[in-house]
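Title: [Solved] Dihydrodipicolinate synthase family protein 3D structure

Original question kept below for reference.
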Amino acid sequence: MKDIKKYQGVIPAFYACYDAEGNISTEGVKALTRHLIAKGVKGVYVGGSSGECIYQHVDERKAVLEAVMSEAKGKLTVIAHVGCNNTADSVELARHAESVGVDAIASIPPIYFHLPEYAIAKYWNDMSAAAPNTEFVIYNIPQLAGTGLTMSLLKEMLKNPNVVAVKNSSMPTQDIQMFKDAGIAARGEGNFVVFNGPDEQFVSGRVIGADGGIGGTYAVMPELYLAMNDHINKGEIEAARAIQYDADRIIYKMCEAHGNLYAVQKEILRRMYGLELGGVREPMPGLIPEDEAIVAEAQAMIEAAIAKL
Ligand SMILES: CC(=O)N[C@H](C=O)[C@@H](O)[C@H](O)[C@H](O)CO
Ligand SMILES: CC(=O)C(=O)O
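Solution (posted by the thread starter after getting help):
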């Protein structure tokens, strides 16, 4: 691990940014990047679930990453999720990500077919080989990917020296401990990172050993996660927990909408900051008029929680 510090902290998952026609808006991407820099986050996780990666073409994903890099270079840690559902496209994105100078690449396992572990390892290692000077982050999100990271697969991946981290989105926080322990056993203290995935348990994840967090709701309320992180660093667990409860209530409220969570969050960013990031790509459901009250309520809850800090 060259520099563990760049992974310690709050790393929002970047939202897909579209124009009114549903095409990629590089202006939106740049504006969101500048917005997050101004909020003081540690980095961004580009092209993951929140980036609607599985609904975007390879060329679109390259354009998004280039637009992020044009604003973020030297200011943010950039982790580019490059997984596609076939190896060739993933390898192409990995090579491209290294060429634009990201800090790390990341990938989910292959989805739909439940492939043997040796095939998953080869898929990840092929991407990593296409970005040989770039660190690699395993994205474990079994409830969506359909395949979970096992200890044997992690041990196999640790043979690749570029594998420096797991972004863990499984729900048991115990998984963070197990992955961290195995990583440190192989690499030594300070040389392996685990990111907390579920935003609803950011505090728990950090307390059990996550070095930082990557999350889909950080970008809409970074102040809350930055404050939780500061409190944890100071050992102020009760204060961190109180903010976690606020964040969780806000997440549950946003999830009440008919429209997808990402659509709700982009609409809130539009209302709070004038950021024009568009909607979500089908088949994800967009907002409907009945969502108006939920969006307004969630925005008010975010503003109230920030005002309490
Ligand atoms: C399953 C899923 O999408 N997990 C995300 C990443 O880990 C989280 O950041 C969620 O978006 C967040 O916790 C809201 O439920
Ligand atoms: C939430 C998250 O980490 C992602 O968008 O991939």
